[in-house]
Structure formats: structure tokens, C-alpha cells
UniProtKB/TrEMBL annotation, chains A, B:
Organism: Gemmiger formicilis
InterPro entries: Cat_transpt
GO molecular function, one term: monoatomic cation transmembrane transporter activity
Protein's UniProt name: Trk system potassium uptake protein TrkH
Bilayer topology term: Multi-pass membrane protein
């Protein structure tokens, strides 16, 4: 048996997913360290290259160096490939290579693909993966074409590259941008705050990328018959609509008061879409009120939908928790949504994910706040941005010490690989014991 | 059938609990409005009297008027009675009057008493209530005696009243104090920051009051045989120890840097004990770092233990959520602690309570922050303090408008009556339907 097959036998799905992600990140970091990757043809320090590669593969978008002014065209191309791999998922990309080369996909590989896409069953997974890859590339192409005229007007020929890069970055919910200059780094899309084409194209790419592959499949199969959709798709679409409309309303009523009506509407919409979990921004977050920032932290924490390029605890997790609260208050045994009961396990998993994300983002914020003597709320903004792989920033990240940046790298990795995947891998040996312990009542609340 | 019996038949346990709390609050507010209740013999406005009465009955300790300088001796006595009633629970107090008057306690009354104490079974509830009342009064007496020398040294004869009032206020986790003067209102116990007698007595009263009546019963019955305790008592004692030690360590290492070693130790200990959910303070919270305030918000949110005078989501709720996270990550079906399995229902209830408290405190903070244009983090401090019936304040509360004070009154009431009690009452008719909906899978996280 060749070495890699023997290794594969010893690893479970989850461990191999983690190893693959880690390998792609390390290869990316090595490529980014090469002098050819930097504008100034110098070697980028390892920790900065590692931070950038992690941020790209985990489609986060937090950066320690301004993307456009530090990295060369080669470096930017490396970043785009890393984003594309990270966004579609290492497994999906690997599977598509196997497909292209005509090799048969093994059952264990199908299982991995299923995990990667949160698909309910293994059957049809190869067909689904092909659909995902084709649709992704097509949508990214359309997005690039929409933005081409604007970017070519402003940047000439290099506008083509900018259109492609931003389309990929938006669709994969990565949030990397090429708008910084040596004098004005980290500006993201603030220059296009009033441009409807860029605002709406990027917003649409973010939303389509963030609702998840399976939702597209449902939309493609069932078209407008909403009642025939999977429960999951219904929940995702309803939650996404609500989580865009309500924050837009809030931002429109209480923020951006100095802007014109059109600018204010676009700013409100974009700043509602981007925290879940894109990471571009057209407004300066340091100029927002503390409520606006708090709302952004909440939106980042909730994030996108399962089986997508997005991070966060996920819309379905939030929906299950809310439905569970209603079920408990109505003294029903299990939560219900759209005329369907949810499993007990869904509630347990949702509570566990929520607890994990909360503990990690708060602990990270406390440590960074204490180490760097920065306000806790600002640190919480950065750590939530990292664990939910958003990439929005109040501008602290480039100035943090190595310990704090290490914490952010760890949070991004956990956030993209997924809390459960990570921990299942670490604890794969310890399945539930046969002899169950005696039960005892405990009062809560 | 007399009117009050017919009324009692129509109301369920929960509705009658809420009505009794509301009635006591309104009577208290009426008494506090009387000119005889104020130092200046003037009528206190209704909304201020209502806020103060709610704060006392809900053992919160948030105030809009400084207790010592605004209220007369009569007003202070009214407050102490309200605190005692609110602390022991309206039902417990009612039952003890019945006991003293020799009337038989009906089965439905026993049920109410069981709910009020989070007791696992109705049997022995009358014996337990008697034990609770006797022990409470005894501990409050001991506390008052301990503090008597210090207060008599500082205030002469009126030190006796101060010792009794502070003992009751500390044991009931109310946090009302009589230390303010017209020139220096709202000072709480900051003058005694270096006094070991006051610090340790008050801390002990807070902890003993906060672990819950059933835990005392366990300690009394099983003495030092920790393994024979109820699961609930074990969890409560372990969580309480941890939630005092760890924050003390944090505060000692990172806060109060200008103080002497002894003062720093006492300050750290007291500021770790008081957020869960006493509400006295010996340090000025506005001088704490943002991390220190954030930690305080977390501690307030967790709060005390079920069946006690304390508020918050409760230590057991936090413990169930953490145990559930571990169980999910170990792929066990139900969470385990101290060699016992917990019910599925405990996880559902804990997640629901957590969701409810989070939504309420955040929504309250957003509204107050927007209405009063104050920083969100400071508003979150006040709303968490209200819903967890803590009473710590960054000093905003007396300056808030009527809408914001109304929100705090609502949060205090929900926090003391208990989220579940409140909502069960509102929705008592709608028990789970017989026909169960079909189940469908949903992916979370
Ligand atoms: K992102
Ligand atoms: K209190």
C-alpha cells in the first residue's frame, strides 16, 4: 500500500480536512514569502506571509499588509488562487481535479465531499460538486463582466484584473481588495460608496456565495415552488432576507447622517450585507456609532449559511436557537419551523457551536485587550471578524503584536475549518461509551 | 366560592406568581410616594417610586434616587421589607404567614412554593420553607452582629440600623446601601474598600444567599460527604468557587494597580463576588479598564444559582451549556457532569434562557444607546445589571429618560420573576399539540 493511502486510512474525514487546509496554507505562505510576490521584490517575513495565506485560504480578508500596495501581480494571483481554493473548499477543489483527470471518486472521498458541503446524503454528491464548480466559475465571470466597465474607466487595462479579483473575492466572501495605495492603504471599497454598479454587483455576489451550494441546488430544482424547498433552504433564505432588511433599516435611520439620500441607501445596504461574512467596506467603521459597531459584531457573529463560502455560527444555528426558545416557552418538546420538527441533535449542536464561538471570540478579545491595552469592544470587533472569517477591521490588526496576530490566525483557522470538524478530529477516538450514566435532574434558568 | 378562590382557580401557578410580585411592587410604590417616606417630606414622583419599589422587590439595587439621602427612616424600612419579601420570594413569605397563623397549606400552594424554590419535588416543601425562613433570619442576624462594631464606631447609634439594613440587603443580594450623602450620592461601600470585616461579612452573606436554599439543605443534610450531594448542589458549589476564584485572580493581576497589596486583594475579591448578583461595590466601575467592565458584564450575565435570591441566567444554566458543548464535541448523546447524565430538556431550557437573556439585554442596550446617544457598552452594562438583578451601575441610570427607565423596570421584573415563569404564564393555554409535525434534518454550525 503506498504511503499516502496508508496515511489516509489512519486519518478520519475531519483530520484529513484539517491537514489539507493546513497544507494549502503553508504552501501559500511559502509562495508569498518569495521576493517575486512582493512589489519591492523583497522576502516578506514568515509571520506576515502566514497571516496573509491563512486569511486568504480561510476567506477572511483581515490583512497585515495592504494587498494592492505590498503584493506584486504574482502575489495577488497567488492570493486569488488561495481564495478560490479556500472558498470552494479544499475537498471540492481536489474532487474536481480528480473529475477532470477522469479518475473514479472513492466512497470515502464522496463522504468527505458531503461533509464539506453539508449535504444531507452522499448520493449525487459528484453531480453536485460538478454543479458547484461550474456555477461558481460562471457567477464569478458574470460578476467580473458587470464591474469591468467601471474598473476599466478608472484603472485602464489593469481594471480587467481588478474586476476578476474582486469578483472572486466577493463571491468567495473573502473581502480582499486591490484598492489601497502606499499613501492610502486599507481603504477597501470606500471610493465606490456612491457607485450603484459596484455596490449592487458586490452585494449580489456576496449574498449568492453566502447562501450555500445546496440552496442553489434547491432553487435550480424547484424554481419558484418555495414550499417544495428543503427545510434548510427555506430557513436560509428567510434568515438571509431578514438579516439584510432589518440592519439596512437600522443603518438608514440612525447612521450615515451626513450623506445624500442615495449614498445613504447604498451605504446602509452594503454595510448590512458585508458583515455576513464578506469583509469589504464602503464606510469607515471607526466613524460608526457604538451601536452601529455592536450591530456589525452581531451580524458578523451570525455569519452566512452552512455549506457555503461563509463563516460565523451560521444562519441556521441562529434560527434553531430562536426556534428552540419559542418551543421551550410554548412547552413543546422540539422546535418547529415551516411546518417541520427539528431533531433534538440540532438544538444540542447549535447550543454547542454558539457556546464555542462565544467563548473563543470573548477569550481572544480579553487576551488581546489585556496584552495590547486596547479597548475590549474594539478587540471583540477584530476577534469576531477573525472567527467568523469576515475581515472587517477597525484598523487594529496591522499594529498588533505577534501573540495577538497568532490568536487571530488560530481563530480564522477554527472559523473556516469549522468548530465541529476541528474538535471531532482532535477527539475522534472517544465516541460515546456503551454504559450510560444514571440520569439526574438539574434546574436551569 | 369567594372571589379570591375563584380567581385562583382561573390562574395557573405562574400567573399568580407574577400577579403577587406586581401587587407587592405597586403597594411598595404607593408607600414610597407618601411624604413620610422622603427625608424632605415631599411626594416622590410615581415613576421614581415605581422604579425604586421594582428595584427593591426584584432585589436589583439600581436606583434613581440615593437611598440614604432621599428616603426617610420610614422609607428605608419600607425598602428593607420589600427587599426581604422579594428576596425570600413572595410565595415563601406568604406561606410562612399561613404557617404562623396555623392554617393548612393547600396542595396548589405547595406547588407554588416548590416552583419558587426550584425544589425537585413537592414532598417536604413545608418543612423546607420553614427551614429557609429560620435560616435566612439567623444568617441575617449573624451578619448584622458582625458589622455592628464597625458601623457603630462610624455612625453611633444609627449604626445599628445600618448593620441590619446592609445585612438584609447583602443576604438577599439586593445591593441597596445607606452610605450616600446629599453631597456624595451613590457611593455604595467604596469607603470600606480596605475594611476586612465589612468586605468579608458582606461577601459571605452574598455567597450564602446566592447558592440557593436547596444547596443549604444539602449541606445541612450531608455535611462533608460531597459525593452524596444532589447533582445540582455539586454543580452550584463548583461553579460558584470557580466564578469567584478566577475573576479574583484576573482583577488582582490586571486592575487596581494604584492600591496597596491588602487593599488590592480585598478589592479583587469583592469585585468578583458582587457582580453575581449582589450589586454593592467598593471600587468605582468607571475607573476599571474596559476588560474589567467586560468581565463584570459576563459575571452579571451568569449570575447566581437557581432557587436563591440571585438573578442572571444562573450558574447551572452556564454549566449545562458548557457540558453540552463538551458532549457534542465528544459526540455523546447527552451532557454529563459529576458522573451523572443530564436530561435533554435541561439543554433545551438552558439554550432558551440564554437566548432570551441575550436578546433582551442586547435589545435593551441598543434601544437605550440609540435613544440617549450613549456608548453601547455602557448601556449593555446597565441592561445586564437590570435583567440579572445586580444593581451595579456606571452611573447612567439616574440620568436616563422615562423610556429608558421603563425598559430597565421591565428587565428587572423579567429577571426576578424569571424568564420561564413569565412566558409560561403568558402562553399557558398553548401546550404541545398531539399531532406532531414531520421531522426534517437541518445542518447547523
Ligand atoms: K471574509
Ligand atoms: K442585586
Amino acid at each position: 500500500m503506498p504511503f499516502h493511502r496508508r496515511l489516509a486510512c489512519k486519518l478520519n474525514y475531519f483530520q484529513s480536512i484539517i491537514l489539507m487546509f493546513a497544507a494549502v496554507i503553508l504552501i501559500g505562505a511559502a509562495l508569498l514569502m518569495l521576493p517575486i510576490s512582493a512589489q519591492e521584490r523583497t522576502v516578506t517575513p514568515f509571520h506576515e506571509a502566514l497571516f496573509t495565506a491563512t486569511s486568504a485560504v480561510c476567506v477572511t480578508g483581515l490583512v497585515v499588509r495592504d494587498t494592492a500596495s505590498h503584493w506584486s501581480a504574482f502575489g495577488q494571483a497567488v492570493l486569488m488562487v488561495l481564495i478560490q481554493i479556500g472558498g470552494l473548499g479544499v475537498i471540492t477543489v481536489g474532487a474536481s481535479f480528480s473529475l477532470l483527470s477522469g479518475r473514479r471518486i472513492s466512497l470515502s472521498q464522496r463522504g468527505r465531499m458531503q461533509e464539506a458541503m453539508s449535504a444531507p446524503k452522499v448520493g449525487g454528491i459528484v453531480r453536485l460538486t460538478g454543479f458547484v464548480i461550474r456555477t461558481s466559475l460562471m457567477i464569478e465571470g458574470i460578476g467580473a463582466l458587470c464591474m469591468l466597465p467601471v474598473f476599466c474607466r478608472d484603472f485602464g487595462v489593469s481594471g480587467i484584473w481588478k474586476a476578476v479579483f474582486h469578483s472572486v473575492s466577493a463571491f468567495c466572501n473573502a473581502g480582499f481588495d486591490l484598492m489601497g495605495t502606499p499613501d492610502m492603504p486599507f481603504v477597501s471599497l470606500t471610493a465606490y460608496r456612491a457607485d450603484p454598479v459596484i455596490n449592487l454587483t458586490i452585494s449580489a455576489l456576496i449574498v449568492v456565495g453566502g447562501v450555500g451550494f445546496l440552496t442553489w441546488d434547491d432553487v435550480r430544482t424547484n424554481r419558484l415552488c418555495f414550499h417544495r424547498y428543503r427545510l434548510q433552504s427555506k430557513v436560509i433564505l428567510a434568515a438571509t432576507a431578514l438579516l439584510i432588511l432589518l440592519p439596512t433599516l437600522y443603518f438608514f435611520c440612525f447612521e450615515f447622517k451626513g450623506s445624500t439620500l442615495r449614498e445613504r441607501l447604498l451605504l446602509s445596504l452594503f454595510q448590512s450585507v458585508t458583515p455576513r461574512t464578506a469583509g469589504f467596506n464602503t464606510a469607515d467603521y471607526t466613524s460608526l456609532s457604538s451601536s452601529g459597531r455592536g450591530l456589525t459584531i452581531l451580524l458578523m457573529f451570525i455569519g452566512g449559511s452552512p455549506g457555503s463560502t461563509a463563516g460565523g455560527i451560521k444562519t441556521t444555528t441562529a434560527a434553531v436557537l430562536v426556534a428552540n426558545a419559542f418551543a421551550v416557552f410554548h412547552r413543546q418538546k422540539s422546535p418547529e419551523m415551516f411546518g417541520r420538527r427539528m431533531e433534538e441533535k440540532a438544538v444540542h449542536d447549535a447550543a454547542a457551536i454558539f457556546t464555542l464561538y462565544l467563548v473563543l471570540s470573548l477569550t481572544g478579545a480579553f487576551v488581546i485587550s489585556t496584552v495590547e491595552t486596547l479597548p475590549l469592544s474594539e478587540c471583540l470587533f477584530e476577534t469576531t471578524s477573525a472567527i467568523a472569517t469576515v475581515g472587517l477591521s477597525l484598523g487594529l490588526t496591522p499594529h498588533l503584536g505577534i501573540v495577538s496576530q497568532g490568536i487571530l490566525i488560530f481563530l480564522m483557522f477554527i472559523g473556516r475549518v469549522g468548530g465541529l470538524t476541528m474538535i471531532y478530529a482532535a477527539l475522534s477516538g472517544s465516541k460515546s461509551s456503551v454504559a450510560r450514566l444514571p440520569q439526574e435532574r438539574i434546574t436551569v434558568g
